[in-house]
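Narrative summary of target 7.
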Amino acid sequence: MKRIILSGGGTGGHIYPAVAVAEALKRRYGSDVELLFVGAEGKMEMEKVPALGYNIVGLPILGIQRKFTWKNLTVPFRLISSVLKARKVIRRFRPDAVVGFGGYASGPVLWTAQQMGVPTLIQEQNSFAGVANKILAKKAKRICVAYDGMERFFPAEKITMTGNPLRGTFGRGGGNRKEALAHYGFNETLPVVLVVGGSLGTRTLNNMMKKWVATLDGKAPVQVIWQTGKFYEREMREFLAEHPTENIWQGAFIERMDYAYEAADLVISRSGACTVSELCLVGKPTLFVPSPNVAEDHQTKNAMALVEKDAAVMVRDSEAVERAVAEALALIADPERLLSLSKNIEKLAIADSADRIVAEIEKVIE
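Modeled conformation, tokenized:
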């Protein structure tokens, strides 16, 4: 019986890679593996992970807020408390290995495991490593990465290229494009642009769309799947009621992401690590608008890692409202450029990432 702790959370970008690896471990070992997740109290993993059938323990860890708040004064005490609780969890669970996927809880758990002599593995999702992972890497046994050039941050001999593990099935083509188009009320006469801003939505991308739609005379020159996000849903519905426009599908969520990718000729998106990995797997030409509101500006670095390989195009957040749609329309009008971007981004895809990480966990345990 193998016993493994998986720690990561705070956002879906940390939770779902951990869950994807948990699923791969279950496929590999069946009932011969026992898994325990460790997250941060009050964060989304404390709901999402149990809903998927896994056990989770929460630590009282809290990150430092960018704006001054009294909560920042409690951070040192919460860190000490989290380390002490992590020690108890490790003693009780007796893991063969501890795997960290980033997020508030990951640091204390991996650091404590290393002090207790338990083998650790880091899965770094971004092209620019965070401070905590750079520190933890010194005693980690293996470091699984998704981008080239990570020896800038980690010991080269510990690095393995695995890609980012994803839940679900993503792949290039093979779907029914006609069916996908019909799902959104579209046809094959016009190209399709997918604008996706995440589950909550992205103010910049929504403002970009509003500015563009306001210039149209009731009909868009391309077909658009516009995912506005839950937070902006009401505002965008009211806007479109005032500016009714043909060829635009708008919704808070995209339930059938496979249809959206199948229909799209071009994607406009943020550049979080898992989103980038999805787009590589589906091989879609992409215009990235990186979020500036993330640690160490890692979304810009993720996007640039592809731009430098001519595998994507990037427009900065501060310029997106004015420039991004025009850039997208220029790309749509250039089939050769779209084909080149598609071929180059597809070269970066790693379909078996979760299984590769399981193989590295096995090496760490052995």
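The longest strand covers residues 219-227.
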